[in-house]
Design goal:
The chain is α+β, with helices and mostly antiparallel strands. The protein contains four helices and two strands; from the N terminus they run ααααββ. It has a two-stranded antiparallel ribbon.
Length: 104
């Protein structure tokens, strides 16, 4: 993701300030989770990946993702979407999952 964003900055499609603004919440969360701390100081480091990646946790993550979806209604053409496009795809990806939603 960061590599693609750097390319977007190089092509003047995204400013450095915009990039920093979008990355700040991610790094804030990673710091709160202790990802940059030594393992002995991180309370989450004792939780094995078998627990984190368990079926129960995956189901809870899917449930949380489904509950967080927002449907947008383009009243008065408020959203910057031209009439040329009849469908919008929203794709989300991380290390473990790839999700692509087609919004009609």
């Amino acid at each position: 993701m960061l590599l693609l964003n750097c390319q977007a900055v190089q092509k003047n499609m995204l400013t450095v300030d915009d990039l920093m603004e979008r990355l700040r919440p991610m790094f804030y969360t990673r710091m709160r989770l202790g990802e940059f701390d030594p393992p002995e100081l991180n309370p989450y480091s004792s939780i094995p990946m078998s627990v984190v990646l368990s079926d129960e946790h995956r189901e809870l993550a899917v449930q949380a993702a489904c509950m967080s979806f927002v449907l947008l209604k383009n009243d008065n053409n408020f959203l910057p979407v031209t009439k040329q496009f009849t469908r919008i795809a929203v794709c989300i990806s991380d290390e473990y999952h790839r999700l692509c939603l087609l919004v009609i």
